[in-house]
Amino acid sequence: MNFYDQSRALLGRFNLAKVQLKSLTRRLFSRPTRNLATLAFTGVLTVVSQPLLADEVVALSFAKAWQQVQRVSDSQQAQSAQVARAKGLEEAGEDMDWPSLQLTSSYSLLEKPLALDVADLGIDATSLPPALGQMLGALPSQFAFSEQDIFRTSLKAMWPIYTGGQITAAQGIHKAKVEEKKQQQALATRELFLLLVNRYYGVAVAKATVETNQTLVDSLAVHLDHATKREQQGQIARVEVLNAEVAYNNGKINLASAVRQWEMANIAMARMLKLPSVNLYSALFMLDESPSLPYLSQLTLTQHPALKLLQAKEAQAEGLIDVEKGLYKPKVFLYGNYTLYEDDSTLSHIEPDWMVGVGLTMPLISRDGRSGKVRAAKSALLQARYTKAQTQQDLSLLLDQNYRQLLQAGEESQSLDTSLALAKENLRLRDIAFNQGLSTSIDRVDAEIKLKAVHTQQLAAKYRYLQAYASLMTISGQLDKFINNSNSLEK
Predict the structure, then answer these.
(1) For residue 6, what pLDDT is reported?
(2) What average pLDDT does this structure show over 485-490?
(3) What number is the average pLDDT over the span 155-175?
(4) d(CA 154, CA 32)
(5) Is pLDDT above 60 for 1?
C-alpha cells in the first residue's frame, strides 16, 4: 500500500473516531456539570480503541473495488465454471466426426461343438462309383469345426460418413450453448456491478448522513448552551430551554442511528469484497451533461447479453429441428474388423482375419414420435423468437424509465440548491432573532431541522441520480465509462 492509500485509510479511520468522540462529548456536556477529566479520559479511550494502523484498512476507489469484487465473487466463479463446462461439451462434440475403434474380447460356451454328420448329407454310397464309394466309406462319420469353448479377440472400427445432418446439428447446439453460458455470465456480471454501485455509494450516503446529523447535533448543543445561559439571566422561560434540550436529545438519537447504519453499510461492503475492513473514498458524482438516449438505445438493442442469449436459444432450437429431421434420413458408415486372437479350430481357419465394408441404415417405421419431436422443436424456436421480441420491448421501456429517473433526480438536486441556500439564511435569521429575544426556541430548532431535511433530500436525490446512471450504463454495456466517470467526476 503506497503512502497515498495509507493516508486515505488513516484519515477515514480518524473521521470515524472523531464522530464517535463528538457524540460522546455532546452527551457529557448536555448537563450543567461537566467533568473534564472524564471527558478527556473517555475521548482518548475512544480514539485509541479504533485500529489506526493503515495496513489493517484497505483504501479502495470504486474502480479498485470493482476489480476486487470480480476477483473474489463466488457467483462470478460459478459462472466461469459453467462456461468452462459448456466449452468442454463443445470439444467433446467435435469428436463425433472421427471414427471409433473398439477392442472386443469374448468367451462363449456352446451347448455342443459345431460339427457336421456325414449321414446328414444324405449321400447313398451304393449309388456312387465303386472308387468314390470306397473313399466315402473311409471318411469319419462326423467332422468337428469348433470346440465347445470359443475364445475371440478383435478390433472393430466404425466411421460415420453421412448421418442426415445430425452430427453437424449437434455440434452447432453445443456451440450455441457455450454462447448462452457466456451471455449468462455477462448478465451476472452486470447484476454484480449494480449491486456494487448500490453498496459502495450507499456507504458514501450513510457517511454523509452521519456528518449531517453530527452538524445538527453540534448546532443544537450550541443553541442549548445559549438557551441555558439566557434562562439563568432571566431572559427566557424554562420551557424554551426544555424545548432546546428535547431537540438536542432527539438529534443525538438520530446521530446514533446514522452511525449504526454507516457501520452496517461498511460491514456489508467489506463482506462483499471479502476484506476485513475498507475505506471507500470515491464520492457521489453527477454529470455535467446527460447521456444521449438514442445512442443508449442503439447500444442496448444490439449488444445486450439478454438478446444475445436468446439468439443462442434460437440457434439451439434450429439445431434441434435439424437433429429431429435427421431421423427421417439414412445413415451411411464405414466399418471394419480385424481378428487379433482366436482359438485353434477348423472354423477359425476358415474365417478371414479381417473385413471392411460400407453400411447403410434407413428408418422405415419408428415408434419414437419423430413428427411430434419436429413440431416440438419448431415450437421452441417460435418461443425463443417471441421472447426475444418481448425482451427488446422490455429493455427499451427499462431504458426510458431509468433515463427519466436520471433527469428527475438531476433536476431535483439542482432545485434543492436554492432550497438549501434559503434554509441556511432562514437559520441564520432565526438564530439572530432568538439571541435578540424576537423569536422562540421552537422557531430556531425548526429552522435547524429544515436545513437538515434539505441536506437529506439533496443527498437522496444525488444517490438516485447515481443509481439511475449506473442502470443506464449497465443496460447499455458501458461499465468502463461509469468507472472512468467515477474517477474523473467525483466531487
Answers:
(1) 42
(2) 75
(3) 91
(4) 105
(5) no
Q: Looking at the predicted structure, is the pLDDT value of residue 127 above 80?
A: no
> d(Cα 142, Cα 185) in Å, to the nearest integer?
75
Q: What is the dihedral of CA 3, 9, 11, 14, to 10 degrees?
A: -140
Q: Is the dihedral of CA 162, 168, 173, 177 positive or negative?
A: positive
Cβ atoms of 473 and 292 closer than 8 Å:
no
Predicted confidence band at 240 (pLDDT cuts at 50, 70, 90)? confident
- Cα torsion 343, 347, 349, 351 to 10°: value is -110
Residue with C-alpha cell 457517511? Answer: 207
d(CA 482, CA 477) in angstroms, rounded, equals 10
**What is the distance between the alpha carbons of residues 343 and 486, in angstroms, rounded to a whole number?**
81
The SS3 assignment for 361 reads strand
The position carrying cell 448462452 is: 180
Torsion of CA 173, 177, 183, 186, to 10 degrees: -160
The whole-number pLDDT of residue 16 equals 47
Q: Estimate to the nearest angstrom the gap between the alpha carbon of 242 and the chain centroid.
A: 54
Strands 58-60 and 278-280, how do they pair?
parallel
Mean pLDDT in residue range 363-384: 86
Mind giving me the DSSP string for 246-289? HHHHHHHHHHHHHHHHHHHHHHHHHHHHT-S-EEE-PPP---SS
For residues 222 and 26, give the distance between their C-alpha atoms in angstroms, rounded to a whole number: 10
